[in-house]
Design brief:
- There is one protein chain.
- The chain is mostly beta strands and 156 residues long.
- It has two helices and eleven strands, in the order E-E-E-E-E-E-E-E-E-E-H-H-E.
- The protein has helices at residues 135-140, 143-150; strands at 2-4, 26-36, 44-49, 56-60, 76-80, 86-88, 91-93, 96-97, 99-101, 108-110, 151-153.
- The strands form four sheets. It has a five-stranded antiparallel sheet with strand order 4-3-2-5-8, with no helix packed on it. A two-stranded antiparallel sheet has the order 1-11. A two-stranded antiparallel sheet has the order 6-7.
- The longest helix has 8 residues, at 143-150.
Amino acid sequence: MCAPSAPDAEAPPVPPDERPFAKLDVRVGKIVEAWPHPDSEKLWCESIDVGEPEPRQIASGIRAYYAEPADLENRAVLVVCNLKEAKLAGFPSNGMVLCGSSADGSAVEFVEPPPDAPVGERVVCEGMVGEIASPNQVKKKKHMEKAAAELKVADG
C-alpha cells in the first residue's frame, strides 16, 4: 500500500515513531456522497464516513481524473483526519483524501485501503506508529508535507 522512501543518506536516522507519517491520523473512509463544487471546475465536494458520528465534508481537486459522482461514491479511501479545516474555493474541507500520482502527473488515483479494513480504522505504515499530532502541530511542523515527500506508491 504505502512505503516510506529511502531517507536522505546524509540526514541522521529518525526513530520510526517520530517520522512525519506516524504523526498523521490516517483513517479508512467511505465516500457517502460526492457533488461538483459549484464554483470550481477542479474540485469535488465529498461527504466521507470516517467512523465519526457525522460524515466529514472534504473537497478534493480530482475532477480532471474522476468525471462523475458515481466514480467516487461508495469507494473506500484513506483520509488524513488531523488537518486544520481549510476553505477550498469557499468550501470548508475537514481532511484530505490520499491519492497517488504518476511521475508526470497525468494519472491520479485514490490510495485504497485493504478490502477488509473497517471504516474508521487508523492506517499506519509498518514500523511507523506514533502519537497522533494535533491539527495545529501538523500545520506548524509541516507533518503532512514531510510525510507526502516520504511516501511512494508500492506494488503489492
